[in-house]
Write the structure tokens for this entry.
Amino acid sequence: MDWAMAPDLESLVPLSNSLATVEQISTSSSSIDGVPTDLESSIRLAGLEITQAAGILLHLPQDIVAQAMVIFTRFYLGPEGGSYRINSAKDVSAASLYLAAKLSATPQTPRSVCNVYSYLMSDLTRKAFPKPPLHDPESYYLSEGTYHSTRSVLLRTEALVLRTLSFDVKVTVPHHLALTYLQTLGVLPSNPTSKSRGLAARTIGYLNLGLLSPQLLYLTHQPTTLAIAAIYLASRESGVKLPGTAWWEVFDVDREDLGFVVVAYRSCEAWINSERQKWKERVCPLTVYELGKELELESEHE
């Protein structure tokens, strides 16, 4: 192992993100407004999944979609953040994706974003989600009048997201960083083998899974830690041997943080499956109206 190839840690400072405080993690505007913690987690997951689905339909690069998902999560963070009782998850998801794409090399028009979300919010799509629904254009057609009102909501929500986050919408995601680390560790050669490709794919898979984690990993840990934990898990599962020493310390990641993120990655898929099972018979609320109806239903069952 040629440690001379290890990255200069000073050069990684710009790759850090603003992290959430303990107060922001423990208290949210939604909880203050009476949304139970478990329901808040369910809505967050549903909002993140629809953001991911919209990004795929818009053919956006995964790093841009990941940035939008982090912006969406940040918006609802803390007592000063947005509330699901006031700000529809669907609208914030669309605005976050529109904003992230606007700041990239692949900007999207408001019409494209509105059309995609109209499709994703149609009854047929939501009942079938996350599987592809039957194709029925009538269920998601946007008339000219509806488009203009939807576009107005999109632009207003974009402005609200910017104000709430104090225009701090810079997000560094660990995907490219992880691939660089794999090359630095000598397990992703310039002419990759099927095994090294599998390792890279597993690594990226864990990073994408982490975006959905109930522990809010992307708001509590820096990109370097997220990347190293994904590599650690992927290498063990792929049977790829990494240095026997504490190699993660070279990337300034300590064992405690590594262990926490590894456990979070491992538990994430089971939690997502349990959430999907929980909402199997009905759709998770993504609008203020739907949330109000859900809270009424829960209060009747108490």
User: Anything to note?
Assistant: Residues 121 and 140 are 8 Å apart (CA to CA). Confidence is low (pLDDT under 50) at residues 1-13.
